[in-house]
Amino acid sequence: MRRFLFWPHLIAGVLAGCVIFIMSVTGVLLTYEKQMVAWADRAVNTVSVPAGATRLPIDELLATAPKASALTLWNRPEAAAQLALPGNKLVYVNPYTGQLVGEGSAGIRSFFRQVILWHRWLGENTPTSKAITGASNLAFLFLLLTGVPMWIQRPIAGFRRGLSPKARDYNWHHVLGIWAAVPLLLIVVTAVFFSYSWATPLLFTLTGEKPAAEVKAPPSGPGPYEPLFRQIDAPQWQTITFRPAAGTFAVEEGSWGRVDLKSTWTIKDQALVRSDRFETLPLARRLRLWVRTVHTGEAGGLLGQTIAGLASAAGAVLVYTGLALSWRRLRAAIAARPKAAVL
């Protein structure tokens, strides 16, 4: 089996290695994106709470920025309210006074946007770059599926010291391949959904379901929205994001990665008419909702993010050691060729 799998494995690694390396390194940089953004905004995302103060109605908070596309509230007394403005701009306001506290860190958000651009499209979102990263991701899936049987055939439990460069690369390649195989498979399989439009319909087909037709949200009307906000039945809510144009309240009753604790509440004719709770959705839709947070590791909280980041780092080392071993094999093959006779 090893002899049968080796050459396809090597060829796929050589062809897609550089792109996989870029996706892996940028994946490491994105590991704690949300925590780092929150840390960068720490000076403006908290406020002092006056004694006996109550939060302003969301209508008044929206009035502080009429062009806001979304308002996000956190279920913590000291948390500032966040308003999303055109041009990827986020501002924080005091939910008790309506005064502007400050703007979110534009620098770190711009940095992560660039990292995502490289992670998904090699720096530029074009059909060609999307095709390259999509194909490279499928090649990475092939590398994992063909690599695991070979790594298991010659199991190496841990890192060894005092090895030659070639033996060291071989040791690292096998150890990281075995230990990172499962999280890397989850990362790579979920990435297919971002690269190819056929992935989601295939998921519905495999579960024997049909994709639901897209339904546009009904007009929400001019408000007031505060009475509707208070009708939301989610006593354990952590964050609520209201989008006036869509007329929806996105409610999270757990961490961002817990899609099973999310629900959507929709306004129609100035009434709260619908809630899409996770447990009421078809199986394929529920699985599809998990895709992004499984890909980032956020489905498992901070521990899941850490595992995803370490797996991405392992992916980068797998590429390096694999290419290094291939290069040494090529040099050895060239050196072993008989030299032409000298006349």
Q: What number of structural domains do the residues give?
A: 2
Assign a percent range to the helix content.
40-55%
What's the Cα radius of gyration? 25 Å
Percentage of residues in DSSP E strands: 5-15%
How many β-strand runs?
8
Q: Per the principal axes of the C-alpha atoms, what is the gross shape?
A: elongated
Order of helices and strands: HHHEEEEHHHHHEEEEHH
Ends distance: 45 Å
Secondary structure category: alpha+beta
Strands side by side in the biggest sheet: 4-3-2-1-5-6-7-8
What does the main sheet amount to? 8 strands, antiparallel
- Individual helix count: 10
Mean pLDDT: 91
The unreliable regions are: none
Description:
The chain is of the alpha+beta class. The chain folds into 2 domains: 2-33 and 109-210 and 298-336; 49-104 and 212-293, no CATH class. The protein contains 10 helices and 8 strands. The chain has helices at residues 2-29, 33-40, 58-63, 106-121, 127-153, 165-195, 199-206, 226-229, 283-296, 301-336; strands spanning 70-74, 81-85, 89-93, 100-103, 239-243, 248-252, 262-268, 271-277. The protein has an 8-stranded antiparallel sheet. A hairpin with a 4-residue loop joins strand 5 and strand 6. Helix 1 crosses helix 5. The longest helix is centred in the C-terminal third of the chain and has 36 residues, at 301-336. The protein is elongated and about 85 Å long. The two termini are 45 Å apart. The model has no long low-confidence stretch (mean pLDDT 91).
